[in-house]
Amino acid sequence: MAAKQYKAIGEEAWKNNVEKVNAELFIFTYGSLVVQLVKDFEDYGAVNKQLDKMGYNIGVRLIDDILARTGIDKCADFHTTAEVVAKVGFRVFLNIAPAIANWSADAKEFSLILEDNPLNDFCELPPKAVQEGLWYSNVLCGVIRGALEMMQMQTEVWFVHDVLRGDDVSEIRVKLVKILDEEVPVGDE
């Protein structure tokens, strides 16, 4: 499928197949969650790990929802995967479509450039959080990693830039580590 087709699939799913939640409620709830994690862990590195873990668990479940709503088949290659993540996954759940950029020479890494990140709305990080390495929207990295793992792709996903840290855009880097063998759960032969 061409990139334009994935864009159309994502837009169609957003318009017709997604139960919408009030954006401000979602954003403030997420912000409260991050604040509570900062209070609980008192270490920004631990907060980043917890957000990634939470996102991973969300991504593991969201991929089935995306596939059911869109009818997309398994991606043929990592380029197609990037298109589906950016143009379908992000559109269906956040109504944004990040640009895909900075492919590595071996085509195993790419960046998602978020001109607009709804999680950042109404948010300003304190200087200490920036200095000590908080990645406020790190839940997105976990979501991507979890969803791709369910599609048999082990990945590493991390933020490179974030507007909340003074950068011009937010950039998430996605690296394919390996294709996982499909395993049948024990007892499901």
State the total count of DSSP E strands.
4
Q: SS-based structural class?
A: alpha+beta
* Total domain modules: 1
Distance between the termini: 32 Å
Placed side by side, the strands forming the largest sheet appear as 1-2-4-3
Total of helices? 6
What is the averaged pLDDT score?
A: 86
Say what the CATH topology is.
Muramoyl-pentapeptide Carboxypeptidase, domain 2
Report the sheet with the most strands, covering strand number, pairing sense and barrel closure: 4 strands, antiparallel
Reported CATH architecture: 2-Layer Sandwich
Give the helix proportion (percent range). Answer: 40-55%
How large a portion of the residues is in β-strands, by DSSP E?
5-15%
Q: How would you characterize the overall build of this protein?
A:
The longest helix has 27 residues, at 44-70. It is globular and about 45 Å long. The chain has a single domain (3-179), classed as Muramoyl-pentapeptide Carboxypeptidase, domain 2. Helix 1 (3-16) runs parallel beside helix 4 and helix 2 packs antiparallel against helix 3. Strands 1-2-4-3 form a four-stranded antiparallel beta sheet, covered by helices on one side. Strand 3 and strand 4 (170-179) form a beta hairpin. The protein has helices at residues 3-16, 23-41, 44-70, 78-94, 127-131, 139-150; strands at 99-101, 109-114, 153-161, 170-179. The protein is an alpha+beta fold. The protein is 50% helix and 15% strand. The mean pLDDT is 86. This is Trafficking protein particle complex subunit BET3. Pfam families: TRAPP (PF04051). Belongs to the TRAPP small subunits family. BET3 subfamily.
